Amino acid sequence: TVAFLTCLHDPGDLRSLSHNAVNKVVRDTDGAFWALTEQGANRFRPRIERVERHAVQEPRLSFDRVYVPGDAGNPGANFVRDALVDRKGRLWFATRGGVHLFDRATGKFTSYRRVPGDPTSLNDDLVQAIFEDRAGNIWVGTYAGGVNRLRSDAKPFRTHRHNAGDPRTLSENRIAGLAFDPAGRLWASTVNGLNRLDDDGWTRFLHDPQDSATLPSNDLSTIAIGSDGVVWVGSNYRGIYRYDGVRFSTYATSPSNVPAPNGTYSFTGGQVNSLLPDPAGGVWVGARSYGLDWLE
Known about the structure:
Elements: E1 5-6, E2 22-27, E3 33-37, E4 40-44, E5 55-56, E6 64-66, E7 80-85, E8 91-95, E9 98-103, E10 108-112, E11 127-132, E12 138-142, E13 147-150, E14 157-160, E15 175-180, E16 186-190, E17 193-198, E18 201-205, E19 220-225, E20 231-235, E21 240-243, E22 248-251, E23 259-260, E24 263-264, E25 272-277, E26 283-287, E27 291-295
Parallel strand pairs: 1-5
Antiparallel strand pairs: 2-3, 3-4, 4-6, 7-8, 8-9, 9-10, 11-12, 12-13, 13-14, 15-16, 16-17, 17-18, 19-20, 20-21, 21-22, 23-24, 25-26, 26-27
């Protein structure tokens, strides 16, 4: 049997989760975990031997809350969408108020935000995703500014944006997710197509109603790539897509494809928020309001 331990925010307990809306959980280099919420990040160590039954706050885990110093001009700084532990062991937070590099030793932050009129700054404070490549570059996917690359702390950002007159640019500036494949190539899912960064620019993967092997729809959410190179893409209300390098396959979300005790239900509910491929060739699926599933 499977049992879940649920951890919740408790207004009377400063060691509880800072907010119940958890966007992502990442693991640190020392084995600790970070729960990223709409109101701060939470560091915790789940020292649990066994969960015998479904339980809420039993046992009660202890969370260390971390907040980006905010002000009235940056209310989204603690809405944490993503995080990255880079090769130097540094922790980066991607938020709705820019990118913030956290120094664990001092507890201080270095913030990267949009500076109007400065083309070398982060071009959009609404950050959706953050990744590091093999060379140590930091890649940032934004809500409306395309993809930004930071080569080092002291160097400026380089921006990759959609250009209607250039088919080797991004298909859309609204980035939903980023991922690197085993060959080190960057992929970006957007609300208007899938993109891969090659040596000569971006390659677009778009829906073609006349070709069943193409992307089934362009309105995408998250993306993840397995160690086998298979690309998994989540969509908004149209299920999951799998790309094997040749063609796309669709995993439908019709109400009859998964049995349930009281009938049948769709395994994702349509809107896919997160994907995690596993070594067995399947993928874990997190969907908005519809729980967690595993697709074999």
